[in-house]
Amino acid sequence: MPDSAANEVRNRPVTIVDVATRCGVSIRTVSKVLNNEGKVSAATRERIQFAIAALNFKPNSSARSLASRRAYLVALLYDDPAADYLVELIHGSQRACHRLGYGLLTEPMRFDNPRLVEEVQALIRERRPAGLVVTPPICDVPAVIEALQASKTPFTCIARLEPVVGGGLVRVDDRSAGIDVTSYLLELGHRRIAFIKGPAAHAAAKLRYDGFVHAHHQAGIAIDPHLIRQGTFSFESGRECADDLLAREQRPTAIFASNDNMAAGVLHVAHDRGLSIPKDLSVVGFDDSPLSRQVWPSLTTVRQPVSDMAERATEMVIQARQQTLPNATERAGTITFAYEVILRSSSGSAPT
Asked: Where would I find the beta strands (DSSP E) of 278-352?
């Protein structure tokens, strides 16, 4: 670079154009090196990195976004989950974003909104996120998945029923967890086990119930259909279901609720009715949320690492963004996290 040009650069902020000019390459090539994406030869990459250091070039997030025509944001789509669950999702996604230099955009949406697909498409068009993390039950809506695939934007689903072409999947084995919890209660001598389902549109909730059914079939024990109730994952729905179940002449000796919020609602009703937990009734939840340790007695539950799952899902979309893969099918991948049945004071042997 001529001395006059060098002096000019020193008298104003250094831009990506200056780096490209000094190296004799295109702005797009410099952008690839800055963003660690695409194919750039080792020699060219080294030359660009040397120029960046020599010119003391410091890219900012706005410049990076303009260079790549895509905001350095990951969008987290969710549909009004339990507060504890949402906090864990956000914390996990934020960890990955902060570590990798991205921002997090949280977008509440209603899965049953007739305009849901249009809202997702508008988000992608207007905010141009680097990728999306999609939670249930939004990720279980086929039209949403089709829109994401058509957009070519990297995405990862959390707790979806099945993997999808073009997207990643992070989950625990909810069905096996349902089997383990139910088998544990059967081993304690319970034969009248009630189950409170999660929302019908929620694939993970369906898998937990499938595990409940399978464990009974495996043990050769019939399920009383009158002990199956439909909840919504809310504390209030747990209360409503428990009110009905515990008013029955032949009440259950154990209740397996599909999440901790509903299980807490069951405990509330049991206390109101003067039942001793777990002497008269065992109660089991799912998630191992902070609530499970705050209620009395503390809940037996299934620990799923929601925060770690969200962190990994976010990493996956960022990695897919940076790799600029030639076709969407190569972005597919499934990661299954381990779960753990946590035994606490709310469960015990069946009453004699």
From this structure: 282-284, 301-303, 333-337, 340-342
